[in-house]
Amino acid sequence: MDLEAIPGVGAKTAERLAHLDDAERALREGDVAALARAPGVTEGQAARIARGAIRERHGDGSRFLRTDRARELYDDALSLLRERAVTDYAKRRLETFYPSASRSRIEEVRAFVARATERDPDPAVLDALAGVAPLTDPAGLRVRERCLATGDAEAYARAERQFPELSVELVEDAADLAELARGYSTVIALDEGFAGLDLPGDVRVLPDAGERIDEVLPERLLAFFAENRERLLAAADVHEAAGLDSPCGLDALRDGLSRIEADGTVRGDEELGRLQDAVSDVDAAVSTGESVANDRLREAIQTRDVTIEGADLLSLVEQGARVDALLDRELADEFDEAVAAAREHVVDALRLRDHADLAERAFPDDPTFPVRSDDEAVARLRTDLAAARDRRAAALKADLAADLAALRAPVEDLVRDALELDVELAVARFARDFDCTLPAFGGRGFEIEGGRSPLLDVPFEDVEAIDYGVDGVALLSGVNSGGKTSTIDLVGLTVVLAQMGLPVPAERVRLERFDALHYQAKSQGTLDAGAFESTLREFGGLVTDEGNRLVLVDELESITEPGASAKIIAGILESLDEQGATAVFVSHLAGEIREATGFDVQVDGIEAVGLVDGELEVNRSPVKGRLARSTPELIVEKLATAEEDAFYDRLLGKFAE
Ligand SMILES: Nc1ncnc2c1ncn2[C@@H]1O[C@H](COP(=O)(O)OP(=O)(O)OP(=O)(O)O)[C@@H](O)[C@H]1O
Q: Is residue 186 in some structural domain?
């Protein structure tokens, strides 16, 4: 796959993605987490890359959102979805949904939505999802008690690449290997030529070490499971709570995870614990052993009268013998007992079994007083115990790694499925929360029945449903605050969601598959000459664009003086009408614009049905073909009816002219 063919992927990003095991799958499935595992690729970039890959797959190169306000509506739609996702992954993954003009892309998402909306957003599942996150590869693992050894430069380079966690040593002969075995608990020789040698220590010959990674370096697998333990347990809970088919046995996974400590060592082995304690207690046990022996001897000496004949004493002194020799001669039994007691103490205190011999050697047979341990023998005991501890730990790790190895690939799916479920549940919750339906594509323009915008400043349950449809070009008139802007917002949001392939907040919607959405928001006041000119240029570009567009424009008249605006808007409407575009222009000057337009432009109106306590009561659904009366007209009418005053009648008459 040519990664650089994906929009937004340059040579550098392509190179980064090439580090992934399966970049193609990740791109195909929009797996943002897998893409973000590429070195130097952030989650935000990963979402953009995934979106680019989708576009490429559907040959969808066009931009659908053509204005800032159109993009804002998309952002709003995304926020509504993202708020309903639990995991950061799902929030990112939702960004791969975008409004598209491509039929196949829209169909693809609609198929996803059909699955998603069947999901039940059970609170137990949402709770469990809180602990799920993409799996990570532990960094900085270093194993110091084991090394690889080879005499071959190529094998050396390969081993360095395959096992960055281990030291790789170059050796020439068996003597070199033996030397290494003194410093490492285990030496793994990579050359067949070393087979059959009888070397001290733990030296193994494994020419195919590169294919037996879990055996040679179980720490890598264990560190992976230790580091991801909480996420895996949470993903297992999600599968159970949601009743999803699991790609691996959840009990076996939980059991395996319960056997690893957070640091990747194996939990709960009595023998390993014994050896660990023994290594750390050697010095203390030996020194207590010395005290035990010396206390005994001291006592024996104190309670003993030593008789020695003068000739013997003389001969001892002449030989230069120390008092120890005297002890040897006189207290041989006591001395033996004292040393035996010291040895017994060490063997007991360290709970030694196979190392009892070595422990005995820690106290020399030759009598001395005070009794002193043999430093060399103690060092040997310490080294041997440490090697036994490391061998035991390595064997346990290898056993557990062998059990967990079968789960390594399935847990990737386990977590991915849980995270994808979160994406589906976010869509399902969005659809439920806003009473959504899947829209139907076809015909011209759009037709919304019972549409309720989730973007209003009132609680969703208080939003009044709107029916509105336009086929061609229309002016939308209406009283102040009647809901004109809200109506075109609803139209824009509905079209954006529909073309993302998502359900829309309405009872029923039919729409044409548009190529682009232009939404011109209300300007904040009269524009200066320069800004006015550039706005006109934008419309100039808009009316010469190709394709079937939906154009939504809010009170364009506010950009300049009313008389001129009406003429300009009329001209724009004519051009759009000639092109067969669908357009809704919200305006307070609908009457004037209609006058100035060279075709019979449709005018719809959001009408006030009356004034209640000084407040307008509004029918939020635009009435087709009706120019809505303005708020001032309604107030004048009210005054004219209430007060018998010719002045108000005159004003009202002006509206009728
Ligand atoms: N369908 C609806 N259901 C409930 N409330 C609505 C609805 N539509 C609009 N409103 C309320 O009316 C307010 C005004 O709506 P909006 O700004 O769309 O009116 P407008 O006709 O564009 O006003 P203006 O003429 O001042 O531009 C909204 O802020 C909202 O509180």
A: yes
Q: 572 vs 528, which has greater pLDDT?
A: 572
Round to whole Å and give the CA distance between 253 and 256: 5
Distance between CA atoms of 115 and 464, rounded to whole angstroms?
A: 29
CA of 493: how far to CAs of 72, 78, 451, in Å?
10, 11, 11
Give residue 554's pLDDT.
Answer: 93
Same domain assignment for residues 279 and 377:
yes
Answer yes or no: do 380 and 274 share one domain: yes
pLDDT in tens, 139-155: 889 999 899 999 999 99
Long-range contacts of 319-324 (CB under 8 A, 24+ apart): 323/369, 324/367, 324/368, 324/369
Counting atoms of ligand 1 from 1, which one is nearest the CA of 452? 1
Q: Residue 525: CA atoms inside 13 Å, Cβ hemisphere, count? A: 1
Same-domain pairing of 376 and 282: yes
Q: Which residues line ligand 1 (CB under 6 A)?
A: 456-458, 463-464, 466, 478, 480-486, 620
Q: 171-215: per-residue pLDDT in tens?
A: 999 899 999 998 888 999 999 988 888 888 889 999 999 999 888
8 A C-beta contact, residue 448 and residue 469: yes
Q: How far is the CA of 510 from the centre of ligand 1 (A)?
A: 24
> pLDDT tens digits for 115-129?
999 999 999 999 999
**Residue from 456, 490, 523, 606 whose mutation best tests the ligand 1 pocket (most atoms within 8 A of CB):** 456
Band (pLDDT 50/70/90 cuts) for residue 69 is very high
**Distance from C-alpha of 623 to C-alpha of 333, rounded to nearest angstrom:** 119
CATH number at residue 35: 1.10.150
Quote the ipTM score: 0.98
Arithmetic mean of pLDDT over the chain: 90
Choose the residue to mutate in 69, 435, 468, 481 for probing ligand 1, maximizing ligand atoms within 8 Å of C-beta.
481
* Euclidean distance between CA atoms 71 and 5, whole angstroms: 25
Structure tokens at 116: 């998603």
In a domain, 46, yes or no: yes
What is the number of domains present in the chain?
Answer: 3
Atom 29 (ligand 1) nearest CA: 457
Q: Are both 44 and 150 inside the same structural domain?
A: no
CA 486 – ligand 1 centroid, Å:
5
* pLDDT surpassing 80 at residue 305: no
Q: Is residue 259 part of a domain?
A: no
Residue 244 and residue 421 in contact, taking contact as beta carbons nearer than 8 Å: yes
Q: Is residue 230 part of a domain?
A: no
* 56 CA from centroid of ligand 1 (Å): 40
The residue segments making up the domain with residue 1 are 1-57
Residue 65 is given by DSSP the state B
Last residue of a domain, one of 361, 389, 417: 389
pLDDT the model gives residue 324: 65
| CA-proximal residue: ligand 1, atom 11 (nearest) | 483
Beta bridge partners of 553: 520, 585
CA–CA separation, 391 vs 269, rounded Å? 13
132 closest CA partner among 416, 555, 362: 416
Residues 98 and 502 sit within 8 Å (Cβ to Cβ) = no
* Residues in the chain, overall count: 657
Q: How many CB atoms lie within 10 A of CB 34?
A: 23
Atom number in ligand 1 closest to CA 486? 18
d(CA 387, CA 49): 50
Tell the residue nearest (CA) to atom 14 of ligand 1.
Answer: 481
**Residue 432 C-alpha to ligand 1 middle, in angstroms?**
24
